[in-house]
Protein backbone atom coordinates (compact mmCIF):
# COMPACT_ATOMS: atom_id res chain seq x y z
CA UNK A 1 0.00 0.00 0.00
CA UNK A 2 1.65 3.22 -1.21
CA UNK A 3 -0.40 5.46 1.12
CA UNK A 4 -3.53 5.43 3.23
CA UNK A 5 -6.35 5.97 0.70
CA UNK A 6 -8.83 6.87 3.44
CA UNK A 7 -6.74 9.79 4.68
CA UNK A 8 -8.40 13.08 3.63
CA UNK A 9 -5.07 14.64 2.70
CA UNK A 10 -4.10 11.70 0.49
CA UNK A 11 -7.31 11.38 -1.51
CA UNK A 12 -6.42 14.39 -3.65
CA UNK A 13 -8.59 14.96 -6.71
CA UNK A 14 -9.49 11.27 -7.05
CA UNK A 15 -13.04 11.75 -5.82
CA UNK A 16 -15.40 8.81 -5.81
CA UNK A 17 -17.99 9.28 -8.54
CA UNK A 18 -20.96 7.86 -6.71
CA UNK A 19 -24.62 8.71 -7.33
CA UNK A 20 -24.50 12.00 -5.39
CA UNK A 21 -21.34 13.10 -7.17
CA UNK A 22 -22.81 12.44 -10.61
CA UNK A 23 -26.14 14.10 -9.83
CA UNK A 24 -24.51 17.18 -8.32
CA UNK A 25 -22.11 17.48 -11.26
CA UNK A 26 -25.03 17.56 -13.70
CA UNK A 27 -26.86 20.21 -11.69
CA UNK A 28 -23.78 22.37 -11.29
CA UNK A 29 -23.16 22.24 -15.02
CA UNK A 30 -26.70 23.48 -15.54
CA UNK A 31 -26.15 26.21 -12.94
CA UNK A 32 -23.01 27.25 -14.80
CA UNK A 33 -25.11 27.82 -17.91
CA UNK A 34 -28.10 29.61 -16.37
CA UNK A 35 -26.29 31.25 -13.41
CA UNK A 36 -28.22 32.29 -10.31
CA UNK A 37 -28.47 30.46 -6.98
CA UNK A 38 -28.05 26.74 -6.28
CA UNK A 39 -28.81 25.04 -2.95
CA UNK A 40 -27.05 21.81 -2.00
CA UNK A 41 -27.95 20.12 1.29
CA UNK A 42 -26.89 16.99 3.10
CA UNK A 43 -25.85 15.52 6.40
CA UNK A 44 -22.35 15.79 7.78
CA UNK A 45 -19.71 13.87 5.84
CA UNK A 46 -21.83 12.83 2.85
CA UNK A 47 -19.52 14.44 0.28
CA UNK A 48 -20.99 17.91 -0.32
CA UNK A 49 -17.67 19.73 -0.21
CA UNK A 50 -15.84 17.15 -2.35
CA UNK A 51 -18.46 17.24 -5.11
CA UNK A 52 -18.64 21.04 -5.27
CA UNK A 53 -14.87 21.43 -4.96
CA UNK A 54 -14.41 19.08 -7.91
CA UNK A 55 -16.69 21.33 -9.96
CA UNK A 56 -15.03 24.64 -9.07
CA UNK A 57 -11.54 23.22 -9.55
CA UNK A 58 -12.40 22.41 -13.16
CA UNK A 59 -13.64 25.92 -13.98
CA UNK A 60 -11.57 27.96 -16.39
CA UNK A 61 -9.77 30.53 -14.23
CA UNK A 62 -9.86 33.01 -17.11
CA UNK A 63 -13.64 32.87 -17.23
CA UNK A 64 -14.62 32.30 -13.59
CA UNK A 65 -13.55 33.80 -10.27
CA UNK A 66 -14.33 31.48 -7.37
CA UNK A 67 -14.90 33.03 -3.94
CA UNK A 68 -15.21 30.58 -1.08
CA UNK A 69 -16.82 31.74 2.18
CA UNK A 70 -16.90 29.33 5.10
CA UNK A 71 -17.12 31.60 8.15
CA UNK A 72 -20.88 32.08 8.15
CA UNK A 73 -21.49 32.74 11.85
CA UNK A 74 -20.53 36.42 11.50
CA UNK A 75 -22.82 39.44 11.44
CA UNK A 76 -23.99 41.26 8.33
CA UNK A 77 -21.25 43.90 8.28
CA UNK A 78 -18.46 41.32 8.73
CA UNK A 79 -19.98 39.19 5.97
CA UNK A 80 -19.92 42.12 3.55
CA UNK A 81 -16.39 43.04 4.57
CA UNK A 82 -15.20 39.48 3.96
CA UNK A 83 -16.93 39.38 0.58
CA UNK A 84 -15.46 42.75 -0.39
CA UNK A 85 -11.93 41.61 0.45
CA UNK A 86 -12.45 38.36 -1.48
CA UNK A 87 -13.43 40.42 -4.52
CA UNK A 88 -10.27 42.51 -4.21
CA UNK A 89 -12.07 45.54 -2.80
CA UNK A 90 -11.27 47.82 0.12
CA UNK A 91 -14.08 47.31 2.67
CA UNK A 92 -16.20 50.35 3.46
CA UNK A 93 -17.44 51.37 6.89
CA UNK A 94 -21.14 51.35 6.02
CA UNK A 95 -23.08 48.28 4.92
CA UNK A 96 -24.81 50.13 2.07
CA UNK A 97 -21.46 51.20 0.63
CA UNK A 98 -20.10 47.65 0.77
CA UNK A 99 -23.29 46.38 -0.86
CA UNK A 100 -23.02 48.84 -3.75
CA UNK A 101 -19.35 48.24 -4.42
CA UNK A 102 -19.82 44.44 -4.33
CA UNK A 103 -22.63 44.67 -6.88
CA UNK A 104 -20.59 47.04 -9.04
CA UNK A 105 -17.59 44.72 -8.87
CA UNK A 106 -19.66 41.68 -9.90
CA UNK A 107 -21.23 43.68 -12.73
CA UNK A 108 -17.82 44.91 -13.94
CA UNK A 109 -16.33 41.42 -13.87
CA UNK A 110 -19.17 39.98 -15.89
CA UNK A 111 -19.93 42.77 -18.37
CA UNK A 112 -16.48 44.22 -19.00
CA UNK A 113 -14.01 41.45 -18.20
CA UNK A 114 -16.26 38.53 -19.21
CA UNK A 115 -15.54 36.83 -15.91
CA UNK A 116 -18.38 35.15 -13.99
CA UNK A 117 -18.03 35.34 -10.18
CA UNK A 118 -18.82 32.07 -8.38
CA UNK A 119 -19.76 32.76 -4.76
CA UNK A 120 -19.63 29.51 -2.79
CA UNK A 121 -21.06 29.93 0.71
CA UNK A 122 -20.38 26.81 2.77
CA UNK A 123 -22.05 25.96 6.09
CA UNK A 124 -24.96 28.12 4.93
CA UNK A 125 -27.18 26.85 7.75
CA UNK A 126 -25.40 29.30 10.07
CA UNK A 127 -26.11 32.41 7.99
CA UNK A 128 -27.88 35.17 9.90
CA UNK A 129 -31.42 35.96 8.77
CA UNK A 130 -30.32 39.46 7.81
CA UNK A 131 -27.66 38.07 5.46
CA UNK A 132 -30.12 35.67 3.84
CA UNK A 133 -32.53 38.56 3.33
CA UNK A 134 -29.82 40.56 1.54
CA UNK A 135 -28.64 37.72 -0.72
CA UNK A 136 -31.68 38.05 -2.93
CA UNK A 137 -30.99 41.77 -3.45
CA UNK A 138 -27.27 41.13 -3.91
CA UNK A 139 -28.03 38.86 -6.87
CA UNK A 140 -30.47 41.35 -8.42
CA UNK A 141 -29.05 42.87 -11.61
CA UNK A 142 -30.74 45.01 -14.27
CA UNK A 143 -34.01 45.08 -12.33
CA UNK A 144 -33.84 41.32 -11.82
CA UNK A 145 -33.69 40.54 -15.54
CA UNK A 146 -30.13 39.15 -15.66
CA UNK A 147 -27.88 36.86 -13.65
CA UNK A 148 -24.26 38.04 -13.52
CA UNK A 149 -22.99 35.53 -10.96
CA UNK A 150 -23.32 32.00 -9.66
CA UNK A 151 -24.08 31.54 -5.97
CA UNK A 152 -23.70 28.11 -4.38
CA UNK A 153 -25.25 27.62 -0.94
CA UNK A 154 -24.19 24.37 0.73
CA UNK A 155 -24.93 23.13 4.21
CA UNK A 156 -26.87 20.85 6.52
CA UNK A 157 -30.54 20.03 5.79
CA UNK A 158 -31.65 22.58 8.41
CA UNK A 159 -30.98 25.34 5.85
CA UNK A 160 -34.09 24.16 4.00
CA UNK A 161 -36.30 24.84 7.04
CA UNK A 162 -34.78 28.29 7.41
CA UNK A 163 -35.33 29.19 3.75
CA UNK A 164 -38.91 27.94 3.85
CA UNK A 165 -39.78 30.68 6.37
CA UNK A 166 -42.00 33.41 4.98
CA UNK A 167 -39.33 36.06 5.54
CA UNK A 168 -37.07 34.27 3.04
CA UNK A 169 -39.74 33.44 0.46
CA UNK A 170 -38.26 35.83 -2.13
CA UNK A 171 -34.81 34.24 -1.82
CA UNK A 172 -36.22 30.70 -1.92
CA UNK A 173 -38.09 31.46 -5.14
CA UNK A 174 -34.84 32.61 -6.77
CA UNK A 175 -33.09 29.28 -6.16
CA UNK A 176 -32.84 27.58 -9.55
CA UNK A 177 -31.19 24.34 -8.41
CA UNK A 178 -32.06 22.25 -5.35
CA UNK A 179 -30.27 19.03 -4.44
CA UNK A 180 -30.34 16.94 -1.28
CA UNK A 181 -27.44 14.51 -0.81
CA UNK A 182 -28.46 10.93 -0.04
CA UNK A 183 -25.02 9.78 1.10
CA UNK A 184 -23.23 6.63 0.04
CA UNK A 185 -25.62 3.71 -0.33
CA UNK A 186 -25.08 0.20 0.98
CA UNK A 187 -24.82 -1.08 -2.59
CA UNK A 188 -21.89 1.29 -3.21
CA UNK A 189 -19.84 0.47 -0.10
CA UNK A 190 -17.76 -2.32 -1.67
CA UNK A 191 -17.21 -0.37 -4.89
CA UNK A 192 -16.10 2.70 -2.94
CA UNK A 193 -13.66 0.79 -0.71
CA UNK A 194 -12.16 -1.11 -3.64
CA UNK A 195 -11.76 2.13 -5.62
CA UNK A 196 -9.82 3.66 -2.72
CA UNK A 197 -7.52 0.64 -2.47
CA UNK A 198 -6.83 0.76 -6.20
CA UNK A 199 -5.58 4.33 -5.78
CA UNK A 200 -2.82 3.20 -3.46
CA UNK A 201 -1.78 0.16 -5.51
CA UNK A 202 -3.82 -2.60 -3.84
CA UNK A 203 -5.48 -4.82 -6.45
CA UNK A 204 -6.79 -7.61 -4.27
CA UNK A 205 -9.66 -7.81 -1.82
CA UNK A 206 -8.44 -7.45 1.78
CA UNK A 207 -11.87 -7.41 3.45
CA UNK A 208 -14.08 -10.35 4.31
CA UNK A 209 -17.28 -10.22 2.27
CA UNK A 210 -19.47 -10.13 5.37
CA UNK A 211 -17.97 -6.89 6.75
CA UNK A 212 -19.29 -4.62 3.98
CA UNK A 213 -22.79 -4.69 5.45
CA UNK A 214 -21.41 -3.88 8.90
CA UNK A 215 -19.43 -0.95 7.49
CA UNK A 216 -22.49 0.34 5.64
CA UNK A 217 -24.68 0.15 8.73
CA UNK A 218 -22.12 2.00 10.81
CA UNK A 219 -21.37 4.76 8.28
CA UNK A 220 -25.10 5.35 7.60
CA UNK A 221 -24.41 7.23 4.38
CA UNK A 222 -21.47 9.25 5.68
CA UNK A 223 -18.30 8.88 3.62
CA UNK A 224 -16.38 10.65 6.38
CA UNK A 225 -17.46 8.06 8.97
CA UNK A 226 -16.61 5.28 6.54
CA UNK A 227 -13.13 6.74 5.91
CA UNK A 228 -12.46 7.11 9.63
CA UNK A 229 -13.59 3.55 10.28
CA UNK A 230 -11.40 2.12 7.52
CA UNK A 231 -8.44 4.17 8.72
CA UNK A 232 -8.76 2.62 12.17
CA UNK A 233 -9.39 -0.86 10.76
CA UNK A 234 -6.19 -0.66 8.69
CA UNK A 235 -4.16 0.39 11.73
CA UNK A 236 -5.61 -2.45 13.79
CA UNK A 237 -5.05 -4.94 10.97
CA UNK A 238 -1.47 -3.73 10.57
CA UNK A 239 -0.77 -4.13 14.30
CA UNK A 240 -2.08 -7.69 14.08
CA UNK A 241 -0.13 -8.33 10.85
CA UNK A 242 -3.37 -9.58 9.34
CA UNK A 243 -3.76 -10.27 5.63
CA UNK A 244 -7.53 -9.88 5.78
CA UNK A 245 -9.77 -7.43 7.65
CA UNK A 246 -12.42 -9.63 9.24
CA UNK A 247 -15.58 -8.85 11.23
CA UNK A 248 -13.69 -8.89 14.53
CA UNK A 249 -11.26 -6.23 13.27
CA UNK A 250 -14.05 -4.04 11.95
CA UNK A 251 -15.99 -4.29 15.22
CA UNK A 252 -12.86 -3.36 17.13
CA UNK A 253 -12.42 -0.36 14.84
CA UNK A 254 -16.04 0.67 15.44
CA UNK A 255 -15.47 0.49 19.20
CA UNK A 256 -12.44 2.77 18.89
CA UNK A 257 -14.26 5.19 16.59
CA UNK A 258 -17.19 5.49 18.99
CA UNK A 259 -14.84 6.53 21.79
CA UNK A 260 -13.92 9.74 19.96
The assigned structural class equals: alpha/beta
What order do the strands of the largest sheet run in, or round the barrel if closed?
Answer: 2-3-4-1-5
CATH topology type of the largest domain: Rossmann fold
Name the helicity range.
40-55%
Q: How would you explain this protein's 3D organization?
A:
This protein is an alpha/beta fold. It has two domains: 19-180, Rossmann fold; 184-258, Helicase, Ruva Protein, domain 3, CATH 1.10.8.60. Helices cover 50% and strands 12% of the residues. It contains twelve helices and five strands. It has helices at residues 8-11, 19-34, 48-57, 76-86, 95-111, 129-138, 158-163, 169-174, 189-199, 211-219, 223-239, 247-258, and strands spanning 36-41, 64-69, 116-121, 150-155, 175-180. It has a five-stranded parallel sheet with strand order 2-3-4-1-5, with helices on both faces. Strand 3 (116-121), helix 6 (129-138) and strand 4 form a beta-alpha-beta unit. Helix 2 (19-34) crosses helix 3. The longest helix has 17 residues, at 95-111. The chain is elongated, with a radius of gyration of 21 Å. The model has no long low-confidence stretch (mean pLDDT 89).
